[in-house]
Specification:
Layout lengths: L4 H4 L3 H22 L4 H50 L1
Helix pairs in contact: 2-3
């Protein structure tokens, strides 16, 4: 069974949402332990979760681009080797 490029791609949304949820609760617990008001903790945690989501989505897109590039170059190298072997 061949592995396609889609099998290697990382899914952006589930990873980013998971990181954002962890970040939300981490920031809210830290704010709560530091003695901030609940509204302040919630606001900071909300914005931290949004930032974590955006950063994670961008990083996963970058990782997917690197994986795709590696797959393409590997395929082209195998194709060149096959053509050299067939030519000899």
């Amino acid at each position: 069974m061949k592995t396609g490029a889609n099998d290697m791609m990382l899914y952006i949304r589930p990873i980013a949402v998971s990181i954002a949820v962890v970040c939300f609760f981490a920031v809210s617990f830290i704010g709560s332990f530091c003695g901030f008001a609940p509204a302040t903790c919630c606001r900071r945690a909300f914005f931290a979760a949004i930032a974590a989501y955006v950063v994670t989505a961008l990083l996963v897109k970058a990782i997917n681009a690197v994986l795709t590039s590696a797959l393409i170059s590997d395929y082209l190298n195998r194709l060149k080797e096959k053509n050299r072997a067939a030519g000899n």
